[in-house]
Amino acid sequence: MLINCSAYQEGNKIADIPVPDISEHLAVPGRFVWVALRDPSHDELAVMQEEFGLHELAVEDAMRGNQRPKVEEYGDSLFAVVKTLEPEGDDYQVGEVDIFIGPNFVLSSRRNSNQDFMAVRARAEREPELLRLGPSFVLYTLLDTVVDRYFPLAEALEWELEKIEERIFIRGSQRRNIERLYALKSKVLVLRHAVAPLMEAVGKLYGGRVPAMFLGAEEYFRDVHDHLFRLNGTLDTIRDTINTAIQVNLSMTAIEESEVNKKLAAWAAIFATFTAFAGIWGMNFEHMPELNSVWGYPAALGLMIGVAGYMYWRFRKAGWL
Amino acid sequence: MLINCSAYQEGNKIADIPVPDISEHLAVPGRFVWVALRDPSHDELAVMQEEFGLHELAVEDAMRGNQRPKVEEYGDSLFAVVKTLEPEGDDYQVGEVDIFIGPNFVLSSRRNSNQDFMAVRARAEREPELLRLGPSFVLYTLLDTVVDRYFPLAEALEWELEKIEERIFIRGSQRRNIERLYALKSKVLVLRHAVAPLMEAVGKLYGGRVPAMFLGAEEYFRDVHDHLFRLNGTLDTIRDTINTAIQVNLSMTAIEESEVNKKLAAWAAIFATFTAFAGIWGMNFEHMPELNSVWGYPAALGLMIGVAGYMYWRFRKAGWL
Amino acid sequence: MLINCSAYQEGNKIADIPVPDISEHLAVPGRFVWVALRDPSHDELAVMQEEFGLHELAVEDAMRGNQRPKVEEYGDSLFAVVKTLEPEGDDYQVGEVDIFIGPNFVLSSRRNSNQDFMAVRARAEREPELLRLGPSFVLYTLLDTVVDRYFPLAEALEWELEKIEERIFIRGSQRRNIERLYALKSKVLVLRHAVAPLMEAVGKLYGGRVPAMFLGAEEYFRDVHDHLFRLNGTLDTIRDTINTAIQVNLSMTAIEESEVNKKLAAWAAIFATFTAFAGIWGMNFEHMPELNSVWGYPAALGLMIGVAGYMYWRFRKAGWL
Amino acid sequence: MLINCSAYQEGNKIADIPVPDISEHLAVPGRFVWVALRDPSHDELAVMQEEFGLHELAVEDAMRGNQRPKVEEYGDSLFAVVKTLEPEGDDYQVGEVDIFIGPNFVLSSRRNSNQDFMAVRARAEREPELLRLGPSFVLYTLLDTVVDRYFPLAEALEWELEKIEERIFIRGSQRRNIERLYALKSKVLVLRHAVAPLMEAVGKLYGGRVPAMFLGAEEYFRDVHDHLFRLNGTLDTIRDTINTAIQVNLSMTAIEESEVNKKLAAWAAIFATFTAFAGIWGMNFEHMPELNSVWGYPAALGLMIGVAGYMYWRFRKAGWL
Amino acid sequence: MLINCSAYQEGNKIADIPVPDISEHLAVPGRFVWVALRDPSHDELAVMQEEFGLHELAVEDAMRGNQRPKVEEYGDSLFAVVKTLEPEGDDYQVGEVDIFIGPNFVLSSRRNSNQDFMAVRARAEREPELLRLGPSFVLYTLLDTVVDRYFPLAEALEWELEKIEERIFIRGSQRRNIERLYALKSKVLVLRHAVAPLMEAVGKLYGGRVPAMFLGAEEYFRDVHDHLFRLNGTLDTIRDTINTAIQVNLSMTAIEESEVNKKLAAWAAIFATFTAFAGIWGMNFEHMPELNSVWGYPAALGLMIGVAGYMYWRFRKAGWL
After folding, report:
1. Number of helical H runs and strand E runs in chain C
2. Distance (Å, rounded) from C-alpha D168 to C-alpha B317?
3. Are B35 and B62 in contact (CB under 8 A)?
4. Long-range contacts made by residues D220-225, C-beta under 8 angstroms, separation at least 24?
5. In a mutagenesis test of the E interface, which of D257, D280, D286, D311 is the best target, namely the one with the most E β-carbons within 10 Å?
6. Which residue(s) pair with B97 in the sheet?
7. Could you give the CA distance from residue A249 to residue A175 in angstroms, rounded to a whole number?
8. What is the torsion angle, in degrees rounded to the nearest 10, for the CA atoms of residue E152, residue E153, residue E159 and residue E161?
9. Residues A254 and C254 sit within 8 Å (Cβ to Cβ)
């Protein structure tokens, strides 16, 4: 579906233009065309391919979707893929934005994503002095917007990890902790797959061999790269901490089990003495003088309780009870 | 066994030709020969070596089979090895395709594989404008076909992992989970050994120092490389997740055991009180007044059941039962 | 909040100057201006941006804070971010110092940190022959000061690890150990995030392609880099040791549990023999000749104690008790 | 001990020559000398050092032995160290071959190894057209021979791993499995120490900056490198699988223990009910009407067996028995 | 403390000279001065700094000590730090040697170390043809001596690991094993911190961009590097093996515990049958005909022993006892 199709001259929007006129506008020096698509059909992309002269392989990738984040040069144009992530229940809905950039055009095509870029375009149009920098600046604002939307997701993961950490040494919460740690790790992996390859790709847009189109905008792309680097660092820390937390959780399970075992052993010992004493006085020997004594029974009970009490005290002192 | 042997001029097939005529056709400018072998005998390869002037070491590799995926330059020709994988019960049948590429010939030799490349050749012959690009384009289509066949395998592994994950927190499924995780990891390793070295090898066919023959086709090989990169990322994620799942499975085993232990301890305690009380009133002291009371027995039973009930309630509240 | 604003000529302080005069002083050859801010407001930074001609993206970073440590070139000026850490209870208070360096100015802005750099400035002013080197030397002293403050933190972590290690093989301390190891690991991660990226960034200030401004001061930055390298090595060792200690702690838990289990098994066996013997002589068969013997009871008791004693001795010898 | 000392001209063997004549032959253009030593004494090496003008440090290495595999250039000659491995009981006997290569000589010296290179020399002498390539070809054949002897060792390790894997999920085999896995890992490490450094070293003999002597033979060394790369990949897989298998083995131990525990708990519960019931009817209350009934005993037995049977059925259904 | 201060001309020692004359001797072409200090005071170093024109930062490092091993260039001189290790009880005493090298001087300063370099100097003075190579050769001999002293330490660690490995599958040695493995790992880390950074640093003294002073001595430094590389490999193997051994030790703990558990379960079952039977015949029902039989008691005992014996046999067969 076509969302927008406008022509810009010297940073100012001239008009919304119909698709068939695109090639006409591309021919005018100092003018560039910015088109936005959403879940485009095969035919819509085919039209764009012709108007802008896009490379067949890039169009195929955009058609098929499900690409990894990347930035590829095709001659003097460029094809970028970024991922959009929206929380959906306990998981993410993963969408994709494919961006074609040429010296005088920008074509963005988003799939499976509810995040639009209206605000990006509106803000860009209010700043003609920057928009004058042309498609490379548009690419920067698009990337910047997408990357900025990753931050709250990463913070949510950090916050979730902290909540788990608060419960990690609490007795009896191991099962729930491990379940939440596992779910958290899955989400970290998804976010990392959006961030890490993009970081690597954006790194090629500044420093070293930069495509000519991006000279002058290098500092902006370095800024995006820096944000991605920071996100990546955060995700690495979360991942590292999750791994430790899983190990610690296992340790806590083992420690708690050994505590339960000690308790069990202590009570078993206490009851076993009761049973042993009772068994002895329950034997049917004829000559057991204590059985005939009036004080036998209370004395026996007293002895049993005394021994049990002593054992209880000893176990308590040893920390088993 | 010889499958095909055809000569092409300007992208169009001229004729199926007999093997002894190959060198004749190679001498014609603008012509190239495409030969396909299957499980070739030593003699068949020897003939090909002579006709195409293949390097002894490459032929030896093709003869012995069981090579790792690679792309090697020999002078102005090139030797590529790729792996084919076909699901076979709970494992893969691993086959191999050896491809010799020269400026005017393609020789593919497949071993231990049921996947043919008929469709590849048929499609290539329907697109003479691409086939005109010559052997490098044929290599691209062969690689692309092989790599495309890896995707459903990787997806099957992902799907299997998801099925295991659904059961990972279910009580009593640890033994089955660990068995399936281990089998899955083996399959991931096999697929990775087909993908990772090939990714590295294909990376040498674009960017940097590219063999002259491949200039112009670089974007196609970058596309294959990109697919392999994506596959590799998927496999890394699966591997990482399997490792975590194995740890989580161990944790679940420990957690379940501790739950069982608590249950055991609770019931043991309840029964132990029964036994202790019964033991006491089973003692043979003469002076145990409660024994003579008419209400003694029901009162004793009541007390025992009462204490047991109270303990049951306490253990229940503590989550042990 | 403005802390300081002074102009220096040939390494000597001329005067504290008002902010609006900054640009005037910048115009004088051989003169440089050194400004220090603390938790600056948006407006204060905006003024500085105008006076010094700072790059918009760098100012934005300084405004937002929470950057990772880095050193970025913007044309002929430079933007550096370093972290300050102050122990706060069982955690660190993480602050940030943003430093803008140009050929004739230094602007440092610190946030969320109680560590001032008064002493740094005072010492620098006492050494005009070094201060004559200009802003690059000021950057060196600032970095050096921040990095020197990391060392006691790293040493405190090492010391804490040693204290945990002393208790790692002590019975019954597993729960406390694992809690402390986990807390320690968190702190190591925080410190590492201050050190590792800074090390990488400072590495760019000497050797290879050095910004012109820093030629001549390279050996100083290499020294800072070397300190960071050493810190990083220390942190890696701590991390490695923590990981091993966590594993060892788990092993100790398992070993102790198995020792408890053996003890439990041994005592259970001893009591079980008591109960079994008592049960036998508690049976109600009419013809049990030993029951009628006068020596039956003491003999039975003797037998029971004898067997129990023998078992106790055997278990003791086997190391179970 | 001197094994062989021969001179070759244009690929053909001229004669076995006495050691003192070596320098004479070296002076003849187009001639090269090939010497093989075994467990050489200090004096023998000293003679060789003089005849061939070997570098003192290389000779020292050859004298001391126990070097890591490497290829070092000394001026226009080269010193290579490779490891030989021979299965010896459950371990390897590790030997060493030191090879000195110059423009017109090859000196191989083997230590602590029963593998000779007679066959290598014999085959080389039958192929004068290759031997004409001179010392670099001799080095290739020596390396190729040594590396080919690694393959059966790696396959034996793979086969052993498979045998362990067959038993990994079998109850009660954990102790034996862990012992075998540990022994296997040791052997993998030994083989890896022969393979990995050699792979790195041989990589320097083709591509990039190749010593002049080896130009023309590059494809042969690439072939050896490729074999080593394959071996290395195999060893990495084995190592990775061993690590997983060790973890799985631990999981299986825990799972089996929890199964035993459940069984124990179930039987304990069943017996405990028996004991509890028997205890109740073993009490000495006077007024226990059921005791006087003729059907009391069989009914009690019936009840006890019934309850036990019901519990057995329930535990069975729950998979505990 | 000054240990030595001598001047050398053309490789021959001229005289021991007083410190104040150093600068005089430095002015003579072809002459170099070699000074050795031990635990130098601040003042001694200050004198040296002046005599040799040492860089302030290097002197500061030497003063403070506790540096990581490194080799740093300062203009045309060089500052090297190496660690000395001496076994001290179950740990190492870590010392440090700081070496300043210039075109015509060597200054070595050792701290906290009992290892002197008298023998090194004596041997060097006996070989004037090598000493003629000047300070770079002295540096080589110092490094070589320090590195050679690491080998017996690494071998001791290997030997200790082997002793632990011999006991790793022996029942009941887990606690001792884990303690020794942990202590061993600490020592490996200390040795690694001496070896790994030095290896990296020495790598810069040959190949690639070598400081002018070291041209000609490259092969000697490569030899030192090779030794360090070998040491590093040995330490990596030990570390890897320790990690596996820790895991195996945990597995052995779990396996032994499950063996103990099975034994416990088996004996508990046997005793439980005794108790259950005895309980039944201890009930007070009036009509229990077997109680009145003369053979009742022996038959009951026989039955109980028979059942117990049968169970014992079954458990034995199942490997539980």
Report:
1. 11, 7
2. 40
3. no
4. D220/B57, D220/D137, D220/D140, D220/D144, D221/D140, D221/D143, D222/B72, D223/B57, D223/B61, D223/D144, D224/D140, D224/D143, D224/D144, D224/D147, D225/D199
5. D257
6. B82, B110
7. 9
8. -160
9. yes
CA distances (Å), origin A231, targets A145, A226, A234, C15, C68: 14, 9, 5, 43, 10
CB–CB contact C274 A279 (8 Å): yes
Q: What is the three-class DSSP state of C82?
A: strand
Residues in chain D with CB shorter than 8 Å from the CB of B248 are none
Q: In the CATH scheme, what is the homologous superfamily, with its name and number, of domain C257-318?
A: Magnesium transport protein CorA, transmembrane region (1.20.58.340)
Measured between alpha carbons, how far is D96 from D81 in angstroms, rounded to an integer?
A: 7
Cα separation, E178 vs E168, whole angstroms: 9
For C62, the 3-state DSSP assignment is helix
| Annotated domain spans of chain B | 1-132, 257-318
Q: Which helix (H) or strand (E) element contains residue E259?
A: helix E218-281
pLDDT in tens, chain C (321 residues): 899 899 999 888 999 999 999 989 999 998 999 999 999 999 999 999 999 999 989 999 998 888 889 999 888 889 999 999 999 888 899 999 999 999 899 999 999 988 888 888 888 888 888 888 889 889 999 999 999 999 999 999 999 999 999 999 998 899 999 999 999 999 999 999 999 999 999 988 887 677 777 777 888 999 999 999 999 999 999 999 999 999 999 999 999 988 888 887 888 888 888 888 888 899 888 888 888 888 889 999 999 999 999 999 999 998 888
- In the numeric block, the tokens 């003088």 are attached to A289
Return the amino acid letter for A107: L
* D140, D162, D255: best to mutate for the B interface, most B CBs within 10 A: D255
Interhelix angle C135-148/C150-166, nearest 10 degrees: 20
The number of residues making up chain C comes to 321
DSSP codes of every residue in D247-277? HHHHHHHHHHHHHHHHHHHHHHHHHHHHHHH
Scanning C276-295 for CB atoms below 8 A from E yields 276, 279-280, 282-288
How far off is chain D from B74, nearest CA to CA, in Å?
8
**What is the pTM for the complete model shown?**
0.89
Q: Give the CA angle between residues C295, C301, C306 to the nearest 5°.
A: 120
If residue C98 lies in a helix (H) or strand (E), which one and from where to where? strand C91-102
Q: A68 in helix, strand or coil?
A: coil
Closest Cβ–Cβ partner in C226, C237, C268 for E70: C226
**DSSP state letters, A226-256:** HHHHHHHHHHHHHHHHHHHHHHHHHHHHHHH
Amino acid occupying residue B230 = R
Q: Which of A210, A228, A230, A227 is nearest to A218 (CA)?
A: A210
- Find all residues with CB under 8 Å of B82, minimum gap 6, and list them: B69, B96, B97, B99, B142, B143, B146, B194, B198
Nearest of B2, B25, B220 to residue B124 by alpha carbon: B220
User: Quick one: which of E190, C264, E83, A50 has its CA closest to B268?
Assistant: C264
The phi, psi pair for B10, rounded to 5°, reads 50, 35
Q: Which of A242, A114, A245 is nearest to A186 (CA)?
A: A242
User: C189: which chain A residues are within 8 Å (Cβ-Cβ)?
Assistant: 237, 240-241
Q: What is the distance between the alpha carbons of residues D111 and D86, in angstroms, rounded to a whole number? A: 13
Q: Count CA atoms within 13 Å of residue C289 on its CB side.
A: 3
What is the CATH T-level fold of the domain D1-132, as seen in this structure?
Beta Polymerase; domain 2 (3.30.460)
Name all chains with 3 or more CB-CB pairs below 8 Å to chain D.
B, E
Is the separation of the CB atoms in A258 and C253 below 8 Å? yes
DSSP state of D104: T
Cα C20-C26-C28 angle, rounded to 5 deg:
120
Non-local (6+) Cβ contacts of C110 within 8 A are C36, C37, C38, C39, C84, C95, C96, C97, C98, C116, C117
